[in-house]
Amino acid sequence: MNSLQLASCICTSYASSKTHNEKGVVRCTNVPRNINMEKLQSGYLFPEISEREFAHTQKYPHAKLILLGIGDTTQPIPQVITSAMAEHAQALSTVRGYKGYGAEQGNMALRKSIAETLYRDTGIKESEIFVSDGAQCDISRLQTLFGPNVTVAVQDPSFPGYIDSSVIIGQAGKYEAETGKYSNIVYMTCRPENNFFPDLSNTRRTDIIFICSPNNPTGNAASRQQLERLVEFAKANGSIIVYDSAYAAYITDDSPRSIFEIPGAREVAIEISSFSKFAGFTGVRLGWTVVPDELVYSNGFPVIKDFNRIVCTCFNGPSNVAQAGGLACLSSDGYLALKSVISYYMENAKIMVDTFASLGLRVYGGKNAPYIWVRFPGRSSWDVFTNILEKTHILTVPGRGFGPGGEEHIRVSAFGHRECILEASTRLKSLFT
pTM of this prediction? Predict the structure, then answer.
């Protein structure tokens, strides 16, 4: 059989209504599916939540659905910031103001402003900052940088992007249905019993350690002492920490806002962060990654040089309009305006924490992050999610979606309009009392 005949063979191993032709026959190419994609379990968490939201609206078309699930910001971006973006966009229609491609690493003025505003006294230089279209995109760029042959550790529970990207790149190994874990990933248990931070004395050595603080989903911020132990652990094991600080602006106590506040972190850490939750840029798309000059591979080659090559190969740089907004965010007026928005969300968080606590439930988070982590002992998190959705028309997120360690919990977002938060509080009290 020649290649032309092979290409027309009827495909029988997998069938989807979306791939049937007008005669109802599925035909395949000769291209095999990426075996790593086959290892992914069901859909990515947040699109799955969106699908359930849509199904619920179809079932209850007249219900007022309150969205406290996917962590999307709801308050308007302050005008001082949108005005800067509008001005830049308008200038693009003039000969004098038009600009095309920018530097793949980002506008140097913005890189400098990030260094001076957010990394003051840490020694981070603008040349070590790569501006991007968001932290989630940078997670995948870093995974491309590391490749399939490294070992990885993640917090459990944790943001699902760390695990899914590890599976896609080929680091994860076989999925074990009994445990809900991948064989080659080290799951570092983070529960109230260990203050939501890994017990490093019982953690196996890996090449890469993903840490998110303040944590999504638990809302917990790591203490200085915890991060000092983490840096020492990484140095002793020759590991690289990938530190996700996307929610650092929400910290209200003396918890570190950056891993680079910890001595020695420049030798063992990369930091990713974002304007999404800090500035309401979930739709605008802007973030950054910090790769210190001192961070080197086992052969002594600087990691920053390889990451620069990845960025230049895979990315044409962030939108110049978005970067104009980023500069405005870090101006004195912009930064002050954003603090007011953050305070609004954190007041929402307090309302929800008080609501669940008044019902006798164990509640965590809501102090240093806009997420509330609520425990329902002995219950399936998907069952709790479904029960709340069906009976109160409130969308949350089941903890199991963040890993096996999230079972018995739900995550509740504080991103919402105040009237929705107050209404949610009333509905929840009615359900559980």
Answer: 0.93
